[in-house]
Design goal:
- With 130 residues, this protein is an alpha+beta fold.
- It has 3 helices and 7 strands; from the N terminus they run βββββββααα.
- Strands 2-3-4-7-6-5 form a 6-stranded antiparallel β-barrel.
- The longest helix is centred in the C-terminal third of the chain and has 15 residues.
Length: 130
């Protein structure tokens, strides 16, 4: 099967909240890329594709030390408790996605050097740097 993804997906176990019309769904960030994320929610949701929501990624256990990263998102697919979102209406540099991706990459203790080099290549291409 051909890989259609444009960007690397960094695995994660960060806590998340997905907020839609005042309702907050909690769960775990399964993975993140420059374009979107895969979330594992604690309970099944009926949010249809195209639904706009705010994704909050808790970068630190203590929100006073570092507040959650907030990214406006749109649901692209739902399968039981798994939910895929794409990022919308954000400036990638301003949102902190690149910094988060680098942080998540460093958290992987068994990260293969080839994977690290590949991720650096994606980042360089994405940021148009040599």
């Amino acid at each position: 099967m051909t890989e259609l993804r444009q960007f690397y997906r960094a695995p994660s176990t960060k806590k998340i909240e997905l907020v839609h019309h005042g309702e907050s769904l909690s769960g775990i960030l399964e993975n993140i890329s420059f374009n979107g994320a895969l979330l594992h929610l604690r309970r099944t949701t009926a949010l249809p594709g195209g639904t706009g929501c705010l994704l909050r990624i808790h970068l630190d256990a203590d929100p006073d030390l570092r507040p959650p990263l907030q990214i406006w998102s749109e649901v692209v697919h739902v399968n039981d408790k798994l939910l895929g979102v794409k990022f919308v209406d954000h400036d990638v540099d301003g949102s902190g996605c690149i910094a988060l991706l680098m942080e998540l990459m460093r958290e992987e203790p068994d990260q293969d050097q080839d994977d690290v080099d590949r991720i650096r290549g994606y980042l360089a291409d994405y940021c148009n740097t040599p």
